[in-house]
């Protein structure tokens, strides 16, 4: 059985911490480097129910995409939800490790997993990493569809292939517009509109699209927008990441057992379509 420091070295090789954004907080959060690890749970969010799941599973390590603490803290007292998570994990011998923007930029990265979930062919990164001579790392991915779909069909495909969250999938643009090429970015992608427009793709699939950036993007160009739940766009990475660690474990003969949390940790829990959505505001 490997010890935590062995597994952390493997994770650091898959997602080098130096490739995270300056503002990010990645790597180990808690855990004893000398403790044995035989089960690892992957999840998007380090929230209470995921910590409880790791404990119930007997995991020695929880790997999440989102950081628990993004800024410095002076207390891990259990009177906050984050402190409670830390207590639950440490008391039960579960380490926590975060791979966030370093996993976004990796090859394969978060957006490769999103593209794969939809069966899209990746042609390159949306924002290439200048330090990568292979030209494969970077933020977001540009993709081609094997056969053209209408925007309506493409949004329906995303709704069908991504894990179900209450928000579902919404699209902006002519539903009959033909989609042959798309940009995808797991998580909040509305800071990348300029790069998406420059790429000249037909549609952009991401999450957390806000009114003003989306409205302005629609006014700028005929680019169609497809907005899914943040958690749903990043969850496919958990399966990809677990498979990557499985391969490392096999190479070393570690016998690790990896698991992926299926709990929906998107914060939104219900969705109501307006019954007369096409009629607009009342007169
Ligand atoms: Zn995210």
UniProtKB/TrEMBL annotation:
NCBIfam families reported in the protein's UniProt record: YbgI_SA1388
Name listed for the protein in its UniProt record: GTP cyclohydrolase 1 type 2 homolog
Chain ranges passing through the membrane: none
Pfam families: DUF34_NIF3
Gene3D superfamilies attached to this UniProt entry: NIF3 (NGG1p interacting factor 3)-like
Subunit structure: Homohexamer.
Family (UniProt): Belongs to the GTP cyclohydrolase I type 2/NIF3 family.
Domain of life: Bacteria
Sorted UniProt keywords: Metal-binding
